[in-house]
């Protein structure tokens, strides 16, 4: 009998199935492969679920954005305040805001449309895919469980007969060849082979089912990925398209603002309200050109004004200070710092009511005025009546001031006046005699002035000298007693 040797087959890497083929009842759990595939389906189900949640969140974002843009629209829904200042035609600011309203309403609409599209076209695809994965997991669990139970049952049966064969083979060695027919190890062995064949059939059936499931898994996963891609394409078409619309709407707003010519509104405003605007061709206003009521009234015109030097009333000071002095028709002698009416309010520094004052004859460019400061300043309240020494720029100017002040004070020609220091005044006897009559006419209604008595003609030279020292001009002797008496009543206007 010849022995046939089979060729040596090439070695290959052993697999789980080949390792288990040498064992009659392998310890491998028949649910291992099915369980692994079930876990994979669970992973896919969760992945699709995450995608579902993301798309749902985006859908809610667009829904809320639509509502938020409604609030945005309310901020510009009312007409512009003081809208009459803007041109209502297209191309201006009013048209720009109308463009913003239209585009903002479009933002509301496009967000609402995107929310509806996602909800109606994208989410249903992912929901169906989620259900397919769940159904696939149920099918796998049901088929694997049924096949695993059959394999487990066949393995248990085989294991029992193998154990029975072991018992009877052990008994055969101890008791010899005397056995019951059913306990014959040969018969039992054939029973083991029968049951082992059934077990292998169940295992192979399960294996074939798992191979089919594994092959189907590749197709199913391709279907899952394809469905996800389809959903994302639809999602991108809606969301991405909406993003492009938003960009276009905002770009249109920008273009509407950029198309406004810089001088468009101003030209329209000048055209509408040019009669109320300032004409740049007109010259600026000047105080000199302005007319106001009583501007040229006689009481507002100075009788004489100009700069004079005045000696300070403070006995401790010396020298003269320059000021601006005015004699007004209201019979005041006012002192100002200067003649500037604009730099500050021209409030008098000193004010003397001339009818209550005593005026001295000029001595060169100097003359005196004795009176009370009524300006209301602190200096007037403390000093009371005081004699003010003035110095003009020239004797002629001093005489001019004296004449005006004497006239304002109410003195008449020939009236005795108080001479300035070291000045002797010559009085015309005729004028002295005529003074009482003249004063009775012109000064009847005047406030009583300080008076200085005029000496009679028989007055001695010594009396004349005393009168001169007292500052009173000596009067010539009158031929009759009546003129002398009149001279005694003469008043000196101060």
UniProtKB/TrEMBL annotation:
Pfam families: BAR_4, PH_20. SMART domains: PH (SM00233). Residues 451-485 have a biased composition (Low complexity). Residues 1-21 have a biased composition (Polar residues). Residues 301-410 form the PH domain. Transmembrane segments: none annotated. Keywords: Phosphoprotein. PROSITE patterns: PH_DOMAIN. Residues 1-31, 436-494 are annotated as: Disordered. This is PH domain-containing protein. It comes from Podospora comata.
